[in-house]
Amino acid sequence: MSLSQTRRISAIDEAGLLDRASALLQVALEQGADEAQVISRGVEETKVRYEKNDFTCTSTNGKLTLSLKVYKNGKKGTATTNELGVDALADTARRALSLASFSIEDEHLSLPENGITTEVPGRYDSSLAELGTDDLHALAAEFIAAASADPRISLDGGQVEVTKYCEALVNSNGMSRTDAVTRLDWTVMGLGKTETETTSFDYLSDSTWSLAGATEKAKETAAKLVSNILQSFGPRSCESYKGHIVLSPAVVADMFLGPISYHVSGSSLMDGKSRWEASLGELVASPSFTLVDSAHNVKLMGATPYDAEGVATKPTVIIEDGVLRAHLDSTYTASRRGTSSTGHCGGMHTIEITGGDSTREELLQSVDQAILVERFSGNVDPLTGDFSGIAKGSHFYKNGRHQHPLTETMIAGNVFDLLKDIHGISKDPKPHCGRFIAPWILVGGVSVTGA
Amino acid sequence: MRSFLEAIVAKQTGWVELRYHRRLLNDFTVQKGRVDVANSSVTGGIGVRVLENGSWGFASTVNLSAAAIESAIETARANALEISKIQAKKIPALPRVTLGQGDITLPGYDELMSRPLEDKLSAMVSMEREAAGSASQIHTAMASYREIFEDKVVVTSDGASISQKLVRPELRLVAYASGDGEQNIGHTSLGVTGGWDCLFNHHKAGAIIEDTVRSAVDLLGAPHLPGGKTKVILEPSVVGLLSHEAIGHTVEADFVMSGSVAAGKIGKRVASELVTLCDSGAAEFGPTPGGLMAFDDEGVPTENTVIIEDGVFKSYLHNRESAAHFGVAPTGNARAWLYHDEPLIRMRNTYISPGTTSFEEMVASTDEGFLLVGAGSGQADATGEFMFGTDYAVEIKNGKLGRKFKEATISGVAFDVLSTVDAVGSEFKWDLGAGYCGKWQPAKVDAGGPYVRCEITLGGRQ
After folding, report:
1. Measured between alpha carbons, how far apart are the two ends of chain B, in Å?
2. Chain A residues within an 8 Å CB radius of B129
3. How many alpha carbons fall within 13 Å on the CB side of residue A314?
4. Do the Cβ atoms of B259 and A48 come within 8 Å?
5. Could you tell me if B376 and B427 lie in one domain?
6. Which of B198, B218, B238 is the last residue of a domain?
7. A2, A4, A9: which to substitute to probe chain B, counting the most B Cβ within 10 Å?
8. DSSP secondary structure string, B234-295?
9. Which of B35, B41, B125 is facing A76, going by the closest CB pair?
10. What is the CATH number of domain A3-230?
């Protein structure tokens, strides 16, 4: 089946998006904006959905978005449109300027100057961009077959999606950027079911920029899901205790990244919300803990040459051997704080937590008892660091030996206390969900509540 | 637009659904005297769904010309034919059901559209300023307002032809307090389907600043909840979240067909006889809930679906396909977030019906336990195990309310918890605030109920 029949509902390319962005920038300036920035994004996507243990629908979407930010007399307004009509550009500029007209003056509003960015290759694959629907279905069928490998597995949902993104960013300081990426994303959610038992569900997802090796990588995700579910039959709760737990890479990310990114962000710092305002150079975590925003690591899907306002990104060590090394700023927060942008408008890009020197099994064997938390279904307050929720897909260990899977077991504590109470880090950090790389981490001081 | 889409559908063969959706979203955020967000966003397009060769195919386009829409129909058909090659069970033709026809604009749309944006921003500026200055411990306040105008047209080849306009305004106030080296947040959110006055007639609107600031300040230095299973009184927002997370998700028919714990429960006792639990597209017991709608995104008129009646399981939530599978009428639960999203089975306004016990009687007859206040985010499992956060708890001892405890996450198994219900209050409130539900795509929902007393596990500190 030809691509034109299946994917190209609205053709997009970088040159066309740059033209559209430049045209809207011009209209905004003609209508009176002092400064303006336009981001034009085009998306072509085809996704195959799986539900109720069967394929259910294939959908194809073409999307186009123009986002305008204007500054007028020191006031800000933004407007977005995906309409294609002849009046759409003028209407978008009018709406943004109208909002700016009654906003509040802010002397720190300014757009970044044009600068040099570093190319981040390896994020665009023409074979993925041109992938036909029949090939996508074949890949999805292999993925789902692998996830259904055991008759006890029931798949509630799954999705395989191929996407081509193009983007152009221009501003009135002469900045002009274009970028294009392709990606293949897959997700699967399932549970175990026998005549007598239904397990908790589990879900996994992953992504890649290119077609090469994608099927094998997707099948690895499927196999991991099957393994997780089959190990979760026959769960029991455990006695309540306060002590050690081992966090999986997924849980490390779910628990740690929100509070850490909150307290190193320029917006929290400028508003007095950060607990780490005066902590640069100080120990904020165990000396074994190092966290880096690698920014250009294409093993992770956040890799990007520039941030949400076009400022060049670069690798940034945030916490090194437990010591806080960086605060993260956009142009605006930097102006407020008297610093320089670090290329973090929109937040961190690709997060890596450095591995330690133990295996996961050695971590479990190093304490009298612990629960191995595979997934965290709960809430983390980024301001205080307090967390509380269910330890999903988890297992109880005593004297380093597996006892049983867990159900109805809750964990609670404080992330900032945990950061300083790290007893071991595994030596094999793993990419997870395409968003971050993290190891297994043994922490203490966690309240574990059994049923 | 409706007649335009009707003309395109009339030329097609086979089952075709065209859904035009234009969303205008305006939002403001004010913090520390700054306007952090002043935004207006327009998103529109046509979603096309076909049922071809026993398979669904979907495509969407931002181009509203007849030629582009017809091209999208062809793409959707090609998708359906292609997926039918790997789809094991073919979908039978959809049976004829009652489908909506006509144009409807829900109350508040025109009024809110004509109200100047400047006035709405000004209200947020005043609210933020007042909150920030209302207690010495408050170092930052944030007020935000969002309004979502939805214009939808659904036309199908088997008779649906509806146009529906509605607006959903939301308001959030957050206060950050600090003292003795500790920080804490108080927050309140409101969300309705209706106009400005509906938002400000919300039961929480009158004291929004006072309640938000007090919540932030009072919890400074408050202890954490002890963990364990205990008797609790859930306030209406928490009852709503329990109804949504613990029961609502497990009774969505697509989830049932995948093996959720609700499978096979029709006609069986699953809860205390005090419990009647429903999901409705209308405003039951209280005005302007956030998930109000006259038709769903398949053009099916919405209804009040009784899921559990006096403790006995009665119905799942359906779209047209699942209703046909189970041999029942669709319940009007097919919803899509944007034009490029396929309609999925989603909740609307989920609630427990009021009973006869007053809040005061409920507290007075509780020897020991906690009152849980403020709904946070949550998640449900296929087993019925659920968890969700609450803002804070108030200790109950010997029938009297006492000191406050910091936020806690609560957990339980849905039908087990409902079986422990021993009192249902007489006062009803919609109270999910500015809450959204996530299931592949977002959906604006509401939930509520009366005060309810039951047993639940608190994920507190040991």
Report:
1. 61
2. none
3. 9
4. no
5. yes
6. B218
7. A9
8. E-HHHHHHIIIIIIIGGGBHHHHHTT-TTTT-TTSB-S-TT--EEEESS--SSS--TT--SB
9. B35
10. 3.30.2290.10
The residue-averaged pLDDT of B141-146 equals 97
Of the candidates A56, A275, A384, which has its C-beta nearest B56's C-beta?
A: A56
B312, burial (CB in 10 Å: exposed 0-12, middle 13-18, buried 19+) = middle
Take residue A130 and report the two structure tokens written for it: 């041109």
Whether residue A2 is predicted with pLDDT greater than 50 in this model: the reply is no
- Amino acid A3: pLDDT: 39
The CATH number that applies at residue B23 is 3.30.2290.10
Q: Is A14's pLDDT higher than 90? A: no
Q: Which of B191, B218, B245 is the last residue of a domain?
A: B218
The 8-class DSSP code of residue B193 comes to: S
Measured between alpha carbons, how far is B424 from B401 in angstroms, rounded to an integer? 18
% of residues, chain B, pLDDT over 90: 81
Chain A contact present for B71, CB below 8 A: yes
- Among candidates B75, B88, B227 on the partner chain, residue whose Cβ is nearest the Cβ of A447: B227
What residues are paired with B170 via a beta bridge?
A: B146, B191
Tell whether B166 and B267 lie within a shared domain: no
The band of A9, judged by pLDDT with boundaries at 50, 70 and 90, is: very low
> Chain B contact for A137, CB < 8 A?
yes
What's residue A12's pLDDT?
67
User: Angle formed by the axes of helices B2-10 and B66-83, to 10°?
Assistant: 50
Residue pLDDT, tens place only, A217-257: 999 999 999 999 999 999 998 899 999 999 999 999 999 99
| Residue B281 and residue B155 in one domain | no
Mark whether B171 and B40 lie in a shared domain: yes
In the predicted structure, residue A7 carries a pLDDT above the cut 80: no
Interface predicted TM-score (ipTM): 0.92
More confident residue, A433 or A222: A222
**Residue B116 sits in the same domain as residue B262:** no
| HSE-CB of A371 using CA atoms within 13 angstroms | 35
B415: enclosing H helix or E strand: helix B414-419
Q: Which residues of A touch B60 (CB under 8 A)?
A: 9, 59-62
Regarding predicted confidence, which is higher, A447 or A85?
A447
